Amino acid sequence: MTTPDFEHALDALAGRVSSLRAARAAYPSDLAPTLDAALAELDTAAELLAEAREQLRKSPKRAGAKRDGGAQRELKLLRQVFRAFPVPVIVLDGGGVVRRINPETSRMLGSPDGYLVGRSFPLLVDVSRRAAFRSHLTSALQTGQPSAFETRLAHQGRTHTVQLAMIRLTMPGEPQQMVAAIALPIEVQVPEPGARRPEQSDGALLLAAARRQDLLVKMATLLLDEEALRRPVALPRATRLLAAEWADWVIADVVRDGVPRRSAVMAPKDQPLGELARQVEAADPATGQVVLQVLDRGSGVVHEMVEDETLLGFCADGPVLTAMGASSLLSVPIGSGDGVLTLVRTNGRQPFALADLAVMQEVGLQLGLAVRAQSSFQSRSRAADALSASVAPRNLPDIPGYEAAAVYHPGSSVGAEFYDVFPVSGGWGFALGGAAGKGEEAASVTAMVRGGLRVLSVWESDPDLVMRKVNEALVAQGSGMFVMAVAGFVQGRTIRLSSAGHHPAARVRNDGTVRFVAGGGVPLGIAGEAETQVETLTVPVGETLVLYSEGLVSSRNARGEPYGDERLADVLGRCAGQSPSTVVKAVEADRHAFSEGQVWDEIVVFALRGV
């Protein structure tokens, strides 16, 4: 066949393919005749390529010299035919790697010219048909006979159902045989030549940028929620958000004791509890090259096309990415070496791009800050719980002849106030007080005073002697802090009180009358010689003795008015004859309403009623 004849046959083939496209568009419900004709045209195309190859093979060569002009012209013609071929044609080597690709293929798949050269073609093939593709590829190579099957090709967010035909080629200058794969679209309309890719339109670019910004806002709102600090929910929440809007699979690996460990896995919605999800959870992230790479470099990576399916390690079904059906992958560090966040998209979705990597780097940074803040907050919460346990008993013991109840609310700092009930020589004792200060130093002084009162009361029968000895110890410590405290020893119906600068206790009688005891004295720790106020009371059946902290009466409302003793007396008067638990709850509720739920300083209310 001469060159003009060949070009004429090629033009005729292009015209017939164009007619088949028009027929497919005009009669979408009757595709069988169109498909049969298209397959016949594939045979024609294969024959044309074979004849061109044969002519090129027969062209004369000069040993040890450049090809003559005729051979050059034939090779140029073959390249031109390949580029102008009206159907997608891909030249593959024996391993399925793309060696040549014509413009029609690039246009159909939505990729730049030559972008797919050097990449593994099976990555474009539907996961369920990759094994079949490799079998057909091997058959075409070994037998030299054409091999065809139907499959889906996915790239750049586009999915095409195609009839893929393969035939063996012997390429001049190539040491190994090649395979020409011709992809005839069946279901998806190929964009017109020169049409702008949809994902590159100005509107689409603006929409994509807005989605990325919206993601950052949502992520920041989610991670700044108070519950994300109190409970370990930051990672699960973040991965759930990303899986819903950004990827098919989301994996978070956190470094513990210097080793990455799988912390969270979010699978596609169609298999949230599937066996594959459990396998991914059980896989060791330390075997994943991409996880170790991101941790080592401290920067993220994006694989627009997953060529190495072992990047994320292995599970029971083989490479994790193979089992997922991954087509695109993105991994970024969580914080500064705290872990790795990995997102995976499967076939049929838009691949990750550099712009996605940039926004995910920011997400990883936010997530790292949230995880560290959560860890710090929980450490402080545990310390606060320990301090609370050291200044307030979890349960009050039974005091013969009395009922007791108490409430304790931590304020902006924990540990400055305390209350306690404990056995003493010949009866029971109670104490209540607080250091004039906040923070760890105030908490340590408070704990020392509480412990001193409890220990010394084993040997002393007078609370005032106990208070004086505690004062001596506090002054000797030289902390510079002072403590307002009150201690009482209960023996029968008699209660002996010793006050060191504390608020006076309130006595609630059966008739609703409320009277305050003397109280007073000088706080502990101010002078070497304690100045206390001592008082002995008789508490009959039905009468309630109520002690309270400075934080209660100094609570303020929105207008800056203090809660005060008078309001406390009104509440207590309405609680006459009621149980201590009812009394302390009523005071608590009234103060809460007065201050609109705000608590600045610690609040303690202790009630003891004769029964």
TrEMBL record:
Q: Which residues cross the membrane?
A: none
Report keywords, A-Z.
Hydrolase
> GO molecular function of the protein, one example?
phosphatase activity
The record places domain PAS at 74-144
Query: What SUPFAM superfamilies does the record point to?
Result: GAF domain-like, PYP-like sensor domain (PAS domain)
NCBIfam families with a match to the protein in the record = sensory_box
Q: Which PANTHER family match?
A: STAGE II SPORULATION PROTEIN E (PTHR43156:SF2), STAGE II SPORULATION PROTEIN E-RELATED (PTHR43156)
Indicate what this protein is called per its UniProt record.
PAS domain-containing protein
Q: Which organism is it from?
A: Nonomuraea mesophila
